[in-house]
Design goal:
By secondary structure, this protein is α+β, with helices and mostly antiparallel strands. The protein is built from 13 helices and eleven strands. It folds into two domains: about 270 residues, Alpha-Beta Plaits (2-Layer Sandwich), CATH 3.30.70.20; about 90 residues. Strands 8-1-10-9 form a four-stranded mixed β-sheet, with helices on one face. A three-stranded antiparallel β-sheet has the order 3-2-11. The chain is elongated and about 80 Å long. About 35% of the residues are buried. The C terminus is likely disordered.
Length: about 375
């Protein structure tokens, strides 16, 4: 069993019903999204069109977010769904840094990472994800890709599909039918913050429909437009990209991103590189002299041991300071042991209503950086 999604761009009307249903189902705060509809416009009026692409977690087979998570808050279920446990998350933002699809965010209420989890709680009782249920055009198809009788399996067998960033090697399980590269490839459009997503002068009307009608069926238009525009196409380009479409020549080559999720900014700065170095130095300062003594490379040296221990403690404290600085720690999270600390007397920890399953492993806590 392996669950996946198909987004059928032939049907998507950009109504944002999936975004609204997801927010309602998971109580997603305003300002962040688990799924959203990216909109890209190409051309200038009257020769223009608008492209819709539903963006979300790709539930990758080789998910980098799962591999990088230091506390195993993200995991892959047996059915292929990439799920998460917010009670284990320490908000280090490693998953956000690793994900090539910008699918994760920090929840402003829980201060932990969150993303689309395929509505796992609904799937477990035999229901479809909320976005699939609410889509008025049946443009979102979910199901078991390993079941040859399922709709998603049959569509994957019949229709040519695309995925986002296949070069990353994550093996995504979110597929797009009839997708335009201008919408899937973020480097083809400039990212802005002032999206006029409700603007309707592009991609509608009589002229846009006429352009779509002749997009694949009028080679004379293609030749005429290329001659007027002074454009040339080599045999290699035709082999690599296919023949030109008249609608693409009518609306030009530079697409515009008109609606997308807001930019999260730089997630990791010099502080993260700093605490990786200080942690390595702290480990080496204690481990190297100890191993040298155990292996007989050096004799007992009390002064050297004190120097190594002091250096290790100093850089370990620096690691804690930098680690605390770069993290938005959830209440009840211990920065020292990287798990939810539970009720074991740490004066700096704000207790939550439930205990961590790992709290019994750490009956003490002296982390002054816990928040």
């Amino acid at each position: 069993m392996k669950y996946g999604f198909i987004i059928d761009n032939r049907k998507c009307i950009g109504c944002h019903a999936c975004t609204t249903a997801c927010k309602s189902e998971h109580d997603v705060p305003v300002g962040v999204n688990r799924t959203w509809v990216k909109q890209v416009e190409k051309g200038e009026f009257p020769h223009t069109r608008r492209l819709f692409s539903v963006m979300r977690c790709n539930h990758c087979t080789d998910a980098p977010c799962v591999e990088i998570c230091p506390v195993e808050a993200l995991y892959i279920r047996e059915d292929g769904i990439v799920d998460f446990d917010k009670d284990r998350c320490i908000a280090c933002k490693s998953c956000m840094q690793a994900c090539p699809y910008d699918a994760l965010y920090i929840d402003p209420q829980t201060h932990t990472a969150a993303k689309c989890n395929y509505c796992a709680h609904r799937v477990d009782i035999g229901l479809e994800p909320a976005c699939v249920n609410v889509c008025p055009e049946h443009a979102i198809i979910s199901g078991d890709m390993d079941n040859p009788e399922s709709e998603i399996s049959q569509l994957l067998g019949r229709q040519p599909v695309k995925v986002r960033k296949p070069e990353k090697g994550t093996v995504p399980n979110l597929f797009y039918i009839d997708a335009d590269d201008a919408s899937l490839n973020p480097s083809l459009t400039d990212k802005k913050q002032d999206y006029m997503w409700s603007r309707q002068e592009g991609g509608v009307g009589h002229f846009a429909k006429a352009a779509e009608k002749m997009a694949f069926s009028n080679p004379d238009v293609v030749s005429a437009l290329m001659e007027v525009n002074g454009q040339e196409t080599t045999t290699d380009e035709v082999t690599r990209n296919g023949t030109a479409r008249s609608v693409d020549l009518l609306i030009g080559k530079k697409p515009r991103r008109v609606y997308d999720a807001p930019d999260k900014g730089i997630l990791w700065g010099w502080e993260v590189s700093g605490y990786v170095w200080t942690k390595a130095i702290a480990t080496g300062a204690i481990l190297v002299p100890f191993l040298a003594w155990i292996l007989g490379a050096v004799g007992p040296n009390l002064a050297g041991q004190y120097w190594g221990l002091g250096t290790g403690i100093f850089f370990l404290a620096a690691t804690g300071a930098l680690r605390s600085w770069t993290s938005i720690s959830p209440p009840g999270s211990c920065m020292s042991c990287s798990v939810r600390s539970g009720n074991h007397g740490c004066p700096e920890v704000v207790m939550r209503s439930r205990f961590s399953e790992d709290s019994w492993r750490y009956p003490w806590c002296c982390c002054i950086w816990a928040r």
